Automatic annotation (TrEMBL):
Organism: Planktothrix tepida PCC 9214
Tree of life domain: Bacteria
Record keywords, A-Z: ATP-binding, Cell membrane, Hydrolase, Membrane, Nucleotide-binding, Transport
Biological process, per Gene Ontology: peptide transport
Protein name: Oligopeptide transport protein (ABC superfamily, ATP-binding protein)
């Protein structure tokens, strides 16, 4: 990404000529529950380009996790189901691969890290065993090669005395250290795409900053693409190239980091940004919050899902859901009114 920026000096031109590493087209996911059908993800489309970091932000239940878990077909099914869409990765529609074909991609080409490392680490196996197994399986390393690489990986993610630590079990590491081990496991096979689903939410602020820094550094070294999911729009400022804002299972705004922070155009994004503390507005007395709650995804409203909470809503907003449309290069918004932040 950086090299192309330097070559072309223009990120709009750059994205237009690049072939996406991942392309999600019109993806929809439903959950069948006793209360009815939950429309968790509602026809979203987006791309991830080589070497870029795409941030996905939105409040709890907006469909962030489901939209990325579907990439590796990790949606709990039943009750979940992908009801429409395509997910293209290196010329293959991942939704059409069989289990064996998908297994080859999981962990090798696409790796994931989650909020709770214990969901991915096996508590009864040493860290060394878990790290080396993946390397032997995906890269056909001998046990000695895998051992050496595992030591190197732990070193790379800043775990002291890696040789000794390989013999430890997950519970013998602190939360921040376990997250580092997870990152080491995810990066072991040098994936082309790293998906990080709120990996720092459970960590304290200092450790959170260290983990973000570590992923940035490794991303720059390995040139991989990253999808980073978070509730925290501020965290993405120094990490992402582009951001998707999700609301009620839809993408409501998609822009470069610069565009999103400078000229947000969806009322929900404007609200999210107003609720962030800013160093240049010291005198601001209280931060604003977005009043109200997201819609019930079982009884999906006919119009814009944000309408009941939106101060800019007009009558038409309650009747028809606005499509996500391009308003300038690299900037798409789903809104009939397109207000400007004041
Ligand atoms: N097992 C399930 N059964 C029923 N509905 C589910 C299930 N898992 C998810 N959903 C529905 O899918 C929607 C999207 O869930 P998802 O986990 O993607 O949200 P999220 O944006 O990642 O939220 P969070 O920030 O809390 O992690 C939820 O609002 C919920 O209604
Ligand atoms: S379409 Fe209407 S209700 Fe929805 S965000 Fe835009 S102004 Fe608000
Ligand atoms: Mg989630």
């Amino acid at each position: 990404m950086l090299i192309l920026s330097l070559l072309f000096g223009n990120s709009d031109l750059m994205l237009n000529i690049m072939i996406p590493l991942l392309e999600v087209k019109n993806l929809a996911i439903q959950f069948v529950t006793l209360d009815g059908i939950v429309q968790a993800v509602n026809g979203i489309s987006y791309q991830v380009y080589p070497g870029e970091t795409l941030g996905i932000v939105g409040e709890s239940g907006s469909g962030k996790s489901m939209s990325v878990l579907s990439i590796l077909r990790l949606i709990p099914s039943p009750p979940g189901k992908i009801t429409q869409g395509e997910i293209w990765f290196q010329g293959k529609n991942l939704l059409q691969l069989n289990a064996q074909q998908l297994q080859k991609i999981r962990g090798r080409d696409i790796a994931m890290i989650f909020q709770d490392p214990m969901t991915s680490l096996n508590p009864v196996l040493t860290i060394g065993k878990q790290l080396t197994e993946a390397l032997q399986l995906h890269l056909k390393f001998t046990s000695e090669q895998a051992q050496n690489r595992a030591i190197q990986l732990l070193q790379q993610v800043g775990i002291p005395s890696p040789e000794r630590r390989l013999k430890n079990y997950p519970h013998e590491f602190s939360g921040g250290m376990r997250q580092r081990v997870m990152i080491a496991m995810a990066l072991g096979c040098q994936p082309q795409l790293l998906i990080a689903d709120e990996p720092t939410t459970a960590l304290d602020v200092t450790v959170q900053a260290q983990v973000v820094e570590l992923v940035k550094q490794l991303r720059n070294q390995q040139g991989m693409s990253v999808i980073w999911i978070t509730h925290d729009l501020a965290l993405l400022a120094g990490l992402a190239d582009r951001i998707l804002v999700m609301y009620a299972g839809q993408i409501v705004e998609q822009a470069t980091v610069h565009q999103l922070y400078k000229t947000p155009r969806h009322p929900y994004t404007i609200g999210l940004l107003k609720s962030l503390p800013r160093l240049d507005q010291i005198r601001q007395e209280s931060l604003s919050t977005i009043e109200g709650t997201p819609p019930n995804l079982i009884d999906y409203p006919p119009g814009c899902p944000f309408a009941p909470r939106c101060q800019f809503a007009i009558e038409h907003c309650f009747q028809e859901n606005p499509p996500l449309e391009q308003i300038e290069p690299n900037h798409k918004v789903a809104c009939w009114v397109l207000p400007r932040a004041t």
